[in-house]
Structures are given as structure tokens and as C-alpha cells.
Amino acid sequence: MASNWRIAVRQAEEAIRAGRLEEAYAYVNQGEVAEHQQAVQLRGRIALELIARGSRRAQAFDYAGAIEDLNNAERFGAPPDALAAARLRTAEQLAPEIKVDLEAGRPERVVERIEKLSREKIHGPALARMREIADAWRLVLADARRGEFGRGIERLERAERLAAECSIAALASTRNDLLKRQETSQPLIERLYRALGGENWGEILAAAEAVLNVVPEHPAALQGRTRAWRRLAAIAPNHALPHAPAARNRTLDLMKPASSDWKTEREPNVDRFAAAESADTETTRRGLGNVSRSGPRGRFLLWADSIGGFLVCLNDQIMLGRADADGRADVPLLGDLSRRHASIVRDGDGYVVKAIEPTFVNGRRVETAPLRDHDIIRLGSTVEIEFRRPSPLSATATLTIVSRHRLPLAVDGIVLMAETCIVGRSLQAHIHAPELKEPVVLYRQGESLWFRAAGGFEVDGAPRIGRAPITLRSNVLGEGFSFSLEPLESPQYSDV
Predict the structure, then answer these.
(1) Is the pTM of this model over 0.85?
(2) For 391, which DSSP code?
(3) CA-CA distances (angstroms) from residue 440 to 166, 421, 422, 456?
């Protein structure tokens, strides 16, 4: 046995000289070898070597490698003081890179990156100061989106005080934008409240959309628009919308509701609780459109009171293209595109964009390319869409149109739903709902779609607790939330 530990120590020393530190550690941490004094000393040396290598990697801008080395050093028993000093140096080296995002006016990205570093125990005064600035800035932008300009300006002043030493020009741009939006939106909001006092739903719709073009999360405008669309049967064929542009009337052909044999009138319900208990089998039997062994398929509209409307796509392949009466695109866009311009394919936990016509990812033309969080997809020369994966625990993704284009139906976002769709106030929610106290979740279970929330709620008038199956025509009502689902036809196309 004596010769065994000597051999292990010699092999570890050779591995250290070759830079194979993890291998060296494995040699001196096995069985009875680990108890020998030379093995213990060698493990301490390996931990210090990992800290040194981590510092060299950070200097070479290999931050992922540096963090991995520091984490291994901690696991191998590195001295806490040396480890803390190395992590502080890494934080200081990373700070200028993160400041670029701050100077570019991307506070959400700054918070996301600093939170990720914090989970890896990378902290420092510069990062803490940038986190404070970014947090205040995010609140300013959130206030502006809701039209709470007075509070937004107060928070902006705090962000400017925190950033006094950083000289961030984008904050001045934010102030100018805030004041301009306040001035622009004031008469529009006044017009909206006048319209809401009457019953002219076409005028309410036009006024609400005018407000949302400037203040995209204005609560009264979101609620007014949702009510107006419902009252005007906005997605019913051949329905003309008063006071709306002529192009809006083509919505009906572009995003038609799915044909279905579902009953539009609820059957007499003698025992609501019994009906609720039978809903599991009823959901599977009826109303989920194209159902396969992998669960519900197709598209539906999710209307959330005081939050907005969202196009939810369930299929693994999503076609992007020009909106037209043939309805060949899952995500139809009013822009200079081909009817079948590109597709996004969910492959396991990842996504790939496949070009049919000229398609770019982060400015680089691609034929097929994997998609990562915050990638910008450009279709043709002008249509730009941001791809997001908000939650690392969910394969669900979202699309946000960042250019001045839109879908023919007034929705606030697009969700590519995998197994779950989270609605809540956290950064990891797929649908951001800042006023929602507790998150709610839509999720697949077998061949059905289910809804989960804390406490009790109603599905189509039937009381449920905790979770319940739903259909693509369900209405869900609970404390602080109200959701309605409407199915849409899925276009027919061959695989790309």
C-alpha cells in the first residue's frame, strides 16, 4: 500500500506539471491515499494552482473557465482568503465588460449577468454599484411602460445620482425619452378615458391602441383593448372594425379562429363540483385542436386582463412569414417578407432557426443556426425579432418584435410554449405580469393543457383548487387574474 500512495503522488505531480489539475486532484483524493500527509499537502497546492490558473484565464477574457477553476479550487479546499481575493479580481476584470451593457442602455441584461455571477460567488464593489444603477433604471423603464411618469422620473434621478461617477450617456437619453413620452401620451390617455366613458367600442379600441403605441403596458389601455376586441368579435370572419385602419379588417383572414365542434353554449350544470371533477377526461376528449402523443398542438390566443394578449404556439416547428389571406405562417408579420420566410424549430431543449429566404442572426446571414437568449433574428432587410429564453428551467421561448412591424392581430408578445408557460413578475416569467402577486403556470400534461395557481380559482365557472385541466376555449378566473383562451387555425405546410 505504501508504494501505491507514492505512485499516486508521483502521478499527481506529473499531472500538475502538465496543467491537468483536475486529474492530479483525482490521484491524491482516492481511497487511503487521501489520508497521507503528502497527498493532503498536494491537494492544497492543486487548489492554489487552480486559483492561479483561474486568474490567468480571467486576464485572457476566458471568464467561464476562470469561474470554473475558482469553483473547483473551493471544492478542493482552497484557503478562503486567497479564493475571495481571486474572485474579487475576477469581478473587477468583468466590470468594464458589463458596463458596456449599461452604457448601451440594457439594464435588464446587466441585472441578468450580475445575478448569474452572484450565483458563482463573483462579487465586487463595481458590480454592486452597477447592479444598483440597473435596478433603478429597470424600474424607470417599467414605470414608463405603464405610464407612471412621475414615479419614473423620481427613480431616474436616483439612478443618475448612483451613476454620477460612471458618466452613462444613455441615462440622459432615457430622461429625454421619458419626458417626450409623457408629453405625447397625455392627450392620448385623456382621449382613452373619455372613450371608456361610453360604449363606442371601435373608438375605445382605436384610443387604446394609440396609447399602447406610446405606453405599451398602460393598464387601462390593455384592459380597454381586450374588452373592445371581445365586443367587436375581432377575430370573427368579415367583421369590420369602426375607426380602425382598413388593413386591420384583414385580421380575420390572417388569424382565423379554429373551426371546431365545441359547444358555444354551456350545458345545464346541475352539480358544478361534479362537472369540475369530470373535466380531466372531458379536456382530453374535446377541444384541444390537434392532439398527438406529445400533447396539444397548434396555436391559441391568451387574453390576460390588465396584462395583455399573447399568441401562443404549441408546435415544435413555427413558421415565420408575411401575413396574407392564405395563412401560411404561424407568426404572420406585416412586412416585406416571403409568405414562408423562415422557421424556428424546437430540438430537445434548444431552438434552431432555418432560413428559406434571407435570414440573419445578430447581423450574420445564416441558413441554419442555433438560437441563444437575446439573439436578434432579422428577416429580410427590416423585420427584427428578439429571441428570449427567460427561464433556464423551461424550454419555452418568447419572441418580441423589436422593429416597427407587427402582427395583424394586436398582441403583446409571442410564446413558443414547450412544457410550461409561466406568467408572473419575475425575470424568468415568459409573460411579464408585474402586478401579479403569485405566478401562475400553463403546462402540458399528457394530451391535455393544464393551469396551476396557488389557492382556488374557477375554470369555465367550475371551482378548482391548485390545478385543473383547461381547453383552448376556457375562461380562468382567480384572485388578481383573469385569463381567456381562443383557438386559432394552424397553417398547413411541409417540413422545412
Answers:
(1) no
(2) -
(3) 39, 8, 6, 12
